[in-house]
Design a protein that fits this description.
Elements (H helix, E strand, L loop, with lengths): L10 H5 L3 H18 L5 H19 L5 H17 L5 H13 L8 H18 L7 H13 L6 H11 L7 H12 L4 H14 L11 H12 L4 H19 L16 H14 L4 H10 L6 H18 L1 H20 L7 H22 L2 H24 L4 H22 L4 H5 L5 H7 L6 H17 L2 H16 L4 H17 L9 H16 L8 H15 L4 H4 L3 H11 L4 H10 L2 H24 L6 H29 L4 H17 L9 H9 L27 H11 L37 H16 L5 H17 L2 H25 L6 H15 L4 H18 L2 H17 L3 H13 L10 H15 L5 H18 L7 H14 L5 H18 L8 H19 L3 H17 L6 H10 L6 H28 L9 H16 L3 H18 L4 H13 L4 H15 L26 H19 L21 H12 L4 H18 L17 H8 L9 H16 L6 H17 L10 H30 L4 H9 L7 H8 L2 H18 L22 H26 L32 H21 L7 H15 L2 H9 L1 H17 L3 H33 L25 H16 L5 H4 L14 H16 L6 H24 L6 H16 L10 H22 L7 H14 L2 H4 L4 H13 L4 H15 L3 H20 ...
């Protein structure tokens, strides 16, 4: 294909190809030429133009295929436009000659059509350059059109488009030709004619002026028998004409008597078509005489779409102005007698009017305009209500108006949600009163519509649910005697109960009791008044059915009463049944059947909504009613209907329906033994087909209704086509569903109004489902008999009746097979299989395509159920034989589809032979151009085979690609169904090829090229489904071979189709964009911006593709499409938001600001704040001033879109958090792409959202504010050091929070605001805490008031949610205050230094704590009550009986499950705060006075009950509190699901730490060893399973506290024992502590053993070398360095500290057991630190090791009488180990000798003399010091001398040997200093430390020997002095040493004056040296003293006064 990429066609290469390859080659060349010509130099084009035109003409005359024709025409036009256009007339003449040719052979037709296409594009592109020949061309085209060349009309519009007004002379002729085509039998011709006239009307004024009425009539006729595409095209034409007539785009010359059309005239024109259709006068008159309607539904649906197009073109502003008039005209349609002659017609017309209102009001108007429209509709309802009162005859006319108006009003209010709240408060319209008054309307449909409208109000504004329920219940009680009132208010209450399912906040539990009482009262009083018996019966059961939607928690207590009501509704014996039959009359039977149907519906609702209540006992009771009564009643119904006429026929049908529904839901074993009876009953009702086909096979039936925007009204046409055989006397079919067909659907969980089918149709669907459930449970003989009867019955019928029965029978059996497959049951033996197969094969050859699809699915299910390879092969052979012999399309299509379906549920096709045969047959059928239907089915089957074959299909891929491409290039555009199947087939082939498409082989390249060419062909086809398939194929290609998909051409085509009028195409576009955005989001955005073409509503250039997607998201209502749009935006944001931050934030801000009601909301918020806080320093109203945002690119966006924009803002902030640090650092951020520079915009957006009318947007705004506070609270303000950047926005945050604490704010908004408040206070940003504290204080007051059941608007769990949110917020604030206060009080803390320097109090410290203290008494009680509730709710299910029957402090017993999540989210913070409060009080109970809790809380008052009989002592109260906190903490920390709750784990640990800081709980824990051991085991598990360093440090700190508590306990017991024994201080310690006499430690019961385990775990995880087993060798890791971080060092140090304390809590024998382990670990860690194998952080580790060693050595157990000997031996061993490691490691590089010396020193100083003075340990210790004194390292020398100082000053037994051994060496080293003075600081320090050591030695000597030693010290000091000359030139270290020695001499000399004088007298040289040094020192001091006096001469002459006292 690369040879095709040239300016001229490579004819040589082309001639060598085969025919189908030549067509592909030419198409590829034309595609390349189309892209090349615009970029080619004009001179080059002119140079090759002649040859190029010749080649293009050759292609023209070569019978090109449809796609090639279009490309050829475009290339020809481009050649003349880019090159020389003078010769273009020659080409036009050539085309005209071809069109005029007399050759009518089929082979010449493609050439003629190519000439027509070329003419169209040439005139479109060159326009007036061809003005001279256009008349001839038009004449030829018109003539061709008259000659039935139907595809000519498709190109006429291009001539009109190119010539514009210049073609005015031919407009009339074209119009006449198009008129004929507009009513052609071919749907494609109608579409082309509509397109031509649409282009013609741009210049032909007469179309929308003088000819408007004729064109309208013509369009009405074109609607008749039309398909979806025709209706869309013609509605666009007629809607455009009507809009032009109403508001002309160009001036019209005035004519005598003419006037401008008014809206009423235009609508009357549409009304005539809507009411009378497009029939002529005679036919219409005849129909009127016959009394039937002559308007088909497709005409009305077309006119409906026309009306939508008409209003959409005029725009939202026009609609807002003229809505009142439009509404009244639409209501005239639905109230006209012609439109409502029959119920089905009335339903259809109402659907049309509702669609017009929904499609215009819902998409064209903003929220403000929608509110105005809602007022208009409300006024219309009020007017119609008054009309209905005037005359009963007007009721029939007004009911349909009311239904449409109420349904649209409900939709508006539901969409507006809480934004419409002011509308309900407007007393001028009284909206709720108006709607409620319709509940008394005589018409049932009007009453139900009003009930649904109230439900929509409740869904949109959940606060209204309880209010409306109370109001309706009150009116129902008051008007029980009025039948309309009973029916209306019952429906309203049921609808409101159904709305609760969509309201997260729910309703009060008490409302269920009220409704239950109402329903029971209605049922019990139904027999009292026969006039309203039916209404009361229906109403009562309707209420009960709706009541079940509240869930099992509500219904559990009412179930016994319900069971009794069910029992009363059915006869209890055969005698009762016989009595019924004898005494019944028509009315009695109607009431009876209605009652039993309602009872069965209530059972169904129980099964659907309250499955948890279906115990065996309940099922058995239901079974009695169903299995005894229902069969007897059902079997007698025919005779009853025969006896009493058709009056009870509808009631009987509904009763049957309810029976079938409940039986389908219950398990067949429930009615075991009755299955055959039920099967026979259901078989009699089979007359409707449910959706039992394979989902992908439905594509064969045309575009699915779910894939079009107009599905709501297109269903009307589909329903009519499904009932074509029905008599017009019955209304022409069902007319679609409507609420009055089944009022019991009003409480279903749905956003849109339910549309149940008529009872007869619904009964059939239920019968099919029931048959499928029951049939598998029958016996073999019964199954075979029923299936044979089915086959026989179908065989004996003929015509339409046979088809209908065949459809129903096949549907029932397919449902059976599906149930068998899902339950893995068997069908039966061959006697059952034979009739089953016969039944399906007969359906497979049925004339209905839906039947054939269902039969193929049935065959696949049958094969799956039987799972017999022989049977499967026989089925396939049978289909092969049929396809070989059959010639009719029906048989061939059915069996072709069967071939692809047989292996559908058998894990795909695994036989290559079957695959080859199947592919061969389907290839042959796919090329049967004589039957497009066969082609379509065969290609669809081929795509299924490709999917099922998987990799096995690879051998057929090349041939398949060739076939698909050849068919794409040759299939006419009129056969769109074939092209759609080709698209599906190409998609399947690409998926089968998969990643292999990335290959570089010749075969792969050819296949890839075929894919791209095929996609290009499909993109040029006008059908939307084919274009969607093309996009899907390109998406698949991009997935497998992204580098071969050209985004530069793909993205612009996607953007162009982004606003397509076809839903399926928009879905495909967005799905493709979503995938592209995951990989190349930036490139996609750039290609979209580069697109010059503007899209409707929004310009790509202005807001980018992202803005276009936001606009599309706002307009779309399809959930799947909206989800894809959101995901696309999220992917684009994650890729590009950080790099293009300003653009994305501005986009989100524009979206948020695009609301008509924004200005009002901001202004009112500002005014309110101004009034509240006028004169304050921080005026919240000055935060933002309301400004109009209408200048933005978006207008009137919905609240849901704005909520998503706020979610995007939060995502952007989170994304920036993971990016550059400069995003949150003002000093580093210097450019606009850092988020911190946009903080003002972020705050503004959060404020705008948080103060909006929409509750959902308020929640999103508060969440955004919370994110901003958390992320930016620590960002400093560089211009104002010591301040943070958020401080300037304090007023703004306060203003955003205030509305959420209003008394009318929903609980979820207040709860979120509390979370924001606590975060805001905890951030430490606020300088004035009073404001935010007031908000929290008001919420606390609200909590204390408690829940008032009578005024409860929401579910009780919302009170729990709000209360716990408030308590959690206060807890967070208190925790912050306490922590801040502690940080201030801690000496040397950062906050302390800051406050000392600034002289101000810390805002998060004392000031905040003082504010909280005022409410702490109340808060503490509430916190304890909440914790007790949480403790009860966390009990396992087996302890549920222990829960209080009345509930807890903040939850009710019925709402336990709903309350649990709220407690789970708040308990940890409350626990921490409670522990801190108990810590502050020291567990001292102070009577703070009664706290006003929400309800009397016992036992949650924690011992504070006022009852005298239950008064607890303070000790008991404290014990309860301690155990409560410990129990909650331990339960949570033991939970395996606590892994994700790191914050909660941290809170638990901090709470326990706070408790153990207080003596009383510490003593409790210390006294209870079992509790301590349990705590240690929990903490051990925690430290093993949690890797967080902070958690592990907290665990170790808690273990230390537990060990300290045990220490205190042991010390107290020992002290008590000593006092009791009267013993003074002595060595013998009483034996308390673990180990007792034996020294044994029991695992699981020993605190010491548990602590050892935990510490060992910590140490070994950080230092595996300690465990030879873990390290894999006796030497650990073999010297590998295990780098420890700072945190790791802290963990190790903490573990060692705990280890060192363990011996002290043991008995003497126990300490001996523990000591070896402790010493081993201590010395092991010490050795690793000494060897340097812990990394660079060992310096942080050593002090902790040495401190732990000192603690062990000083343990009292080492001096205890019973353990002293063992301790001495063990410590000697430890010392020996230490010395051995010193000896073995000292030769290794990097060994820390200083640490070893220090540890030896600690041993020598703190161990008893018995340990260290024994030989050879003492000698080895001395030798170690002697070796260290020989070190060349001055640092080691310095530390050695320091250690010697400590030793010389130690006990005499320890010091004496060291003095004797090392004193001489010390003196000799100091004497050598005179010869080599120190050269650096380290050497200087070593000399000074040596002098200190010698001085310590001197003072350690006896008084008698001290003078002799002084006489040695003084000469050494004098020798260090320098003379005056040497001092001046000496280095700094020598001078420092000189000064230090002089100071020592002046200090020591006077102390030993005798020795000093004798020395001076005996050594004149020393004396002179000393005197010179003293004199020099005195001169230096004098010089320094004079220096300040010199400086003082320059001081200022004016002194500032700084003391003002």
């Amino acid at each position: 294909m690369e040879q095709a990429h040239s300016l001229l066609l490579n004819e040589e290469a082309c001639s060598q190809l085969r025919e189908h390859q030549r067509a592909e080659f030419v198409f590829e060349w034309l595609s390349f030429l189309k892209k090349l010509l615009p970029a080619t130099d004009r001179a080059d084009v002119k140079k090759n133009q002649k040859r190029l035109v010749e080649q293009l003409t050759t292609v023209l005359t070569g019978s090109p295929g449809p796609p090639t024709r279009l490309l050829l025409a475009q290339c020809l036009a481009l050649v003349y436009r880019v090159g020389d256009s003078l010769t273009s007339s020659l080409t036009v003449d050539r085309c005209n000659d071809i069109i005029r040719s007399k050759d009518d052979s089929p082979s010449f037709l493609p050439t003629r059509l190519a000439a027509v296409a070329c003419l169209g594009v040439l005139y479109e592109q060159l326009g007036r350059l061809l003005i001279n020949s256009f008349k001839e061309s038009v004449a030829n085209l018109l003539k061709a059109t008259k000659s039935s060349e139907v595809r000519v009309a498709a190109h006429q519009y291009k001539i009109l488009k190119g010539l514009g007004v210049s073609a005015v002379s031919c407009h009339r002729d074209i119009y006449k030709a198009a008129r004929t085509c507009l009513t052609d039998r071919s749907m494609a011709v109608r579409c082309a004619a509509a397109k031509c006239l649409l282009e013609l009307q741009r210049e032909a004024v007469f179309l929308w002026s003088t000819e408007l009425e004729n064109v309208a009539t013509l369009c009405f006729r074109a609607f008749e028998g039309s398909n979806y595409d025709v209706r869309v095209g013609i509605s666009k034409l007629l809607g455009t004409l009507l809009a032009s007539a109403l508001e002309p785009r160009q001036a019209i010359a005035p004519r005598p008597g003419s006037k401008r059309n008014s809206l009423k005239e235009v609508m009357e024109l549409l009304s005539s078509g809507f009411l009378r259709g497009g029939a002529g006068f005679l036919r219409a008159s005849g129909d009127m005489l016959k009394g039937i309607s002559s308007v088909s539904r497709d005409v009305r649906v077309g006119i409906t779409q026309t009306c939508v197009v008409f209003v959409s073109i005029l725009g939202g502003a026009w609609l807002e102005t003229h809505f009142s008039c439009l509404l009244s005209l639409l209501m005239e349609w639905v109230s006209h007698a012609r439109a409502t002659q029959y119920p089905a017609d009335a339903v259809s017309c109402r659907c049309c009017a509702s669609f017009i209102l929904r499609a215009t009001l819902g998409t064209l108007l903003g929220e403000k305009a929608q509110i105005a429209a809602a007022k208009e509709i409300c006024q219309l309802i009020s007017k119609q209500k008054r009309v209905a009162r005037v005359s009963p005859a007007d009721v029939a006319a007004s009911q349909h108006v009311l239904v449409c108006a109420l349904l649209e009003l409900g939709s508006l209010l539901q969409d507006l949600s809480s934004t419409a709240a002011p509308l309900l408060l407007d007393t001028s319209i009284g909206m709720l009163d108006t709607v409620i008054s319709v509940l008394l309307h005589p018409s049932a449909s009007a009453r139900l519509a009003a009930a649904w409208c109230l439900r929509c109000v409740a869904v949109g504004m959940p606060a209204q649910v309880a209010v409306l329920l109370d109001r309706c219940a009150e009116r129902l009680n008051a008007l029980k005697s009025c039948p309309e009132a009973v029916a209306g208010y019952s429906a309203a209450i049921a609808a409101l109960l159904g709305a609760v399912q969509l309201c997260p906040l729910g309703i009060s539990h008490s409302k269920g009791k009220v409704v239950m009482t109402l329903a029971e009262d209605l049922l019990r009083s139904a027999a009292q008044n026969s006039r309203i018996s039916i209404q009361r019966t229906q109403g009562g059961w309707l209420l009960l059915s709706a009541l079940f939607t509240l869930g099992p928690t509500v219904m559990e207590q009412h179930l016994p009463r319900l069971l009794l009501l069910w029992k009363c509704a059915f006869p209890l014996s055969v005698k009762d049944v016989e009595n019924e039959l004898r005494r019944g009359d028509s009315f009695t039977w109607q009431v009876t059947l209605e009652g039993r149907a309602g009872a069965l519906c209530a059972m169904k609702s129980l099964v659907v909504h309250c499955k948890d209540l279906l115990t065996d006992d309940v099922i058995s009771r239901l079974q009695i009613c169903i299995t005894f009564c229902c069969p007897s009643t059902l079997f007698r119904l025919p005779s009853i209907i025969k006896s009493y006429g058709n009056q009870i026929k509808n009631a009987a049908t509904v009763f049957r329906l309810r029976v079938y529904e409940i039986l389908t839901m219950l398990q067949p074993k429930t009615y075991e033994g009755k299955q055959l009876d039920w099967t026979r009953s259901s078989c009699a009702e089979l007359n409707l087909l449910p959706s039992l086909c394979y989902s992908q096979d439905l594509a064969l039936l045309g575009p699915g209704l779910q894939d079009v925007d107009q599905h709501y009204i297109e269903e009307q046409v589909r329903s009519q086509s499904n009932h074509q055989g029905n008599s017009r006397l019955h209304g022409g079919g069902s007319g679609g569903g409507t609420l009055e067909y089944d009022p019991f659907t009003i409480f279903e969980k749905a956003q849109e109004v339910p549309t149940p089918l008529p009872p007869a149709s619904a009964l059939t669907a239920a019968a099919v489902q029931l048959f499928g459930v029951i049939f598998p449970h029958l016996g073999i003989q019964q199954k075979a008999q029923i299936l044979e009867q089915f086959c026989e019955f179908v065989r004996h019928l003929k015509g339409a009746r046979q088809q209908t029965v065949q459809i129903h029978v096949a549907a029932a059996f397919c449902c059976t097979l599906k149930c068998l497959a899902s339950s893995r049951r068997e069908l039966g033996s061959e006697e059952v299989q034979r009739p089953a197969l016969s039944l399906l094969l007969g359906a497979l050859e049925g004339s209905n395509p839906l039947l054939r699809c269902m039969a193929s699915e049935g065959l696949s299910r049958l094969v799956q159920v039987l799972n017999d390879p022989n049977f499967t092969v026989s089925i396939t052979l049978m289909s092969f034989d049929k396809l070989k012999t059959a010639r009719d399309a029906i048989t061939r299509t059915g069996h072709a589809l069967a071939l692809s379906a047989v292996y559908r549920y058998l894990s795909g096709i695994s036989s290559p032979q079957y695959l080859s045969a199947c592919v061969g047959v389907l290839f042959t059928l796919s090329q049967d151009s004589t039957s497009p239907e066969v082609q379509m089915w065969a290609l669809h089957a081929l795509s299924m085979v490709v999917d099922l074959a998987g990799p096995l299909y690879h051998s057929h891929l090349e041939a398949s690609f060739t076939l698909v491409l050849r068919l794409l290039l040759s299939t006419p555009h009129t056969h769109v169904e074939v092209q759609q199947s080709l698209g599906r087939c190409l998609n399947a082939l690409i998926t089968s090829m998969g990643p292999d498409l990335q290959g570089e082989g010749a075969g792969v390249c050819a296949v890839r090229t075929s894919c791209l060419v095929g996609c290009a062909v499909m993109q040029d086809i006008q059908d939307c489904l084919v274009q969607a398939q093309a996009i899907s194929c390109l998406q698949q290609l991009h997935m497998f071979a992204p580098c071969f998909v050209n985004l530069a051409s793909l993205v612009p085509s996607l953007c162009i189709n982004l606003c397509s009028s076809y839903l399926s195409l928009r879905r495909a576009v967005v799905a493709c964009l979503r995938q592209l955005a995951q990989r190349e989001a930036v490139e996609v955005s750039e290609h979209a911006v580069a697109l010059v073409k503007e899209l409707p509503h929004v310009t790509i250039k202005e807001v980018g593709l992202e803005g276009a997607l936001f606009s599309l998201l706002d307009r779309e209502s399809d959930p799947r499409l909206c989800r894809d749009i959101q995901e696309t935006l999220v992917h684009m944001m994650s890729s590009a938001a950080e790099s293009n931050l300003a653009h994305w934030l501005k986009l989100c801000k524009d979206v948020l600001s695009a609301s008509a009601g924004l200005k009002i909301g901001l202004k009112s918020a500002a005014v309110e704040t101004q009034q509240e806080e006028d004169g304050d320093r921080y005026d919240d109203s000055s935060a933002f001033h309301a400004k109009s945002e209408s200048s933005g690119p978006f207008n009137n966006l919905r609240w849901s879109t704005r909520v998503f924009s706020m979610e995007c803002v939060c995502r952007i902030i989170a994304q920036c958090e993971n990016g550059d640090l400069a995003h949150f650092n003002m000093a580093l951020a210097q450019e606009q792409h850092y988020v911190v520079l946009h903080l003002a915009d972020l705050i503004r957006m959060a404020f705008m959202a948080a103060t909006d009318h929409s509750d959902q947007l308020r929640l999103a705004g508060l969440q955004t504010l919370l994110v901003i506070i958390r992320k930016f609270s620590n960002v400093p303000e560089p211009e104002f050091p010591g301040h943070v950047i958020l401080e300037q926005y304090q007023a703004n945050v306060g203003a955003a929070l205030r509305p959420a604490f209003h008394v009318d704010a929903p609980p979820n908004v207040t709860a979120k605001a509390c979370q924001v408040c606590s975060a805001w206070i905890a951030s430490g940003v606020i300088s004035d805490l009073r404001r935010v504290h007031q908000l929290l204080a008001s919420s606390l007051a609200k909590v204390q008031v408690g829940r008032d059941v009578t005024s409860q608007l929401y579910n009780e769990s919302t009170f729990t949610m709000e209360t716990l949110a408030v308590l959690k917020a206060w807890a967070e604030v208190y925790i912050t205050a306490v922590q801040g206060s502690r940080q201030r009080e801690s000496p040397g803390s950062h906050l302390q230094q800051q406050s000392d320097e600034a002289g101000t109090a810390d805002p998060a410290g004392a000031g905040l704590l003082k504010l909280v203290q005022t409410d702490l008494a109340t808060l503490s009680r509430l916190w304890l009550a909440a914790l007790q509730d949480h403790a009860l709710l966390t009990l396992p299910s087996q302890y549920s009986s222990q829960l209080p029957s009345t509930g807890g402090s903040f939850y009710t017993a019925e709402m336990v499950e709903q309350a649990r999540p709220h407690y789970y989210s708040a308990w940890a913070t409350i626990l921490h705060a409670t522990a801190l409060w108990l810590n502050s009080t020291g567990f001292i109970i102070v009577d703070e006075g009664p706290a006003n809790l929400s309800r009397p809380v016992t036992p949650t008052s924690m011992g504070q009950s006022t009852s005298l009989s239950s008064v607890k002592s303070p000790e008991d109260v404290n014990t309860d509190r301690l155990h409560l906190i410990l129990g909650i903490s331990v339960e949570f920390l033991c939970s395996p699901h606590s892994g994700d709750q790191m914050e909660n784990i941290s809170s638990c640990l901090q709470a326990l730490q706070a408790l153990l800081e207080v003596p009383w709980p510490r003593s409790k824990v210390g006294n209870d060893q079992a509790l301590s051991v349990e705590l240690l085991s929990v903490l051990h598990r925690l430290i093993v399973t949690r890797e967080s360093p902070s958690i592990q440090l907290a665990v170790l700190e808690l273990v230390r506290q537990i060990v300290c508590a045990a220490q205190e306990h042991v010390k107290e017991k020992r002290h008590s024992a000593e006092v009791d024994d009267g013993a003074a201080e002595k060595e013998t310690v009483p034996e308390f502590g673990e180990g007792r006499d034996t020294g044994g430690l029991v695992p699981g019961k020993s605190l010491v053993f548990g602590a050892l385990e935990l510490c060992l775990c910590t140490l070994v995880r950080k230092l595996p070398q300690l465990s030879p087993k873990l390290a894999g060798s006796p030497t650990g890791r073999g010297g590998q360095t295990c780098f420890l971080s700072n945190t790791d060092c802290r963990l190790v140090t903490s573990a060692l500290a705990i280890l060192s304390e363990l011996p002290s809590i043991c008995s003497p024998e126990g300490s001996v057991s523990v000591l070896p382990t402790v010493l081993y670990l201590l010395l092991g860690v010490l050795r690793e630190a000494v060897k340097g194998s812990v990394g660079a952080e060992s310096g942080q580790l050593v002090p902790g090791i040495l401190q732990a060693l000192r603690t062990v050595l000083t343990s009292p157990m080492s001096r205890a009488e019973k353990s002293r000997g063992a301790w001495t031996e063990l410590l000697r061993c430890a010392l020996h180990t230490l010395l051995e490691s010193w000896h073995s490691d000292k030769m290794e590089p990097g060994v820390d000798e200083v640490t070893t010396l220090t540890s030896l020193t600690i041993f020598l100083l703190y161990a008893s003399a018995e340990v260290t003075t024994v030989e050879p340990l003492q000698t080895r210790c001395i030798q170690a010091f002697r070796d260290s004194l020989e070190s060349k390292d001055p640092v080691v020398l310095s530390r050695s001398y320091q250690m010697l100082v400590s030793l010389f000053q130690g006990p005499a037994l320890v010091a004496r040997p060291f003095i004797l051994a090392l004193g001489g060496r010390l003196v000799s080293q100091l004497e050598e200093v005179e010869k080599s003075h120190p050269q650096g600081p380290a050497e200087l320090q070593a000399v000074q430390d040596a002098i200190r050591a010698l001085e310590a030695l001197v003072f350690a000597a006896d008084e008698t020997h001290r003078p002799q030693l002084v006489a040695v010290l003084l000469p050494i000091l004098i020798s260090l002095l320098l003379d005056e000359n040497a001092l001046a030139s000496a280095p700094a270290a020598s001078r420092s040493l000189h000064e230090s020695a002089l100071r020592d001499l002046m200090r020591i000399g006077p102390q030993h004056s005798t020795v000093f004088k004798a020395l001076m007298a005996s050594s004149p040289h020393m004396k002179a040296r000393l005197e010179a040094a003293v004199k020099g020192n005195q001169e230096s001091v004098n010089t320094k003293a004079q220096a300040p006096r010199v400086i003082s001469k320059n001081t200022p002459s004016i002194q500032l006064k700084i003391n003002f006292l």
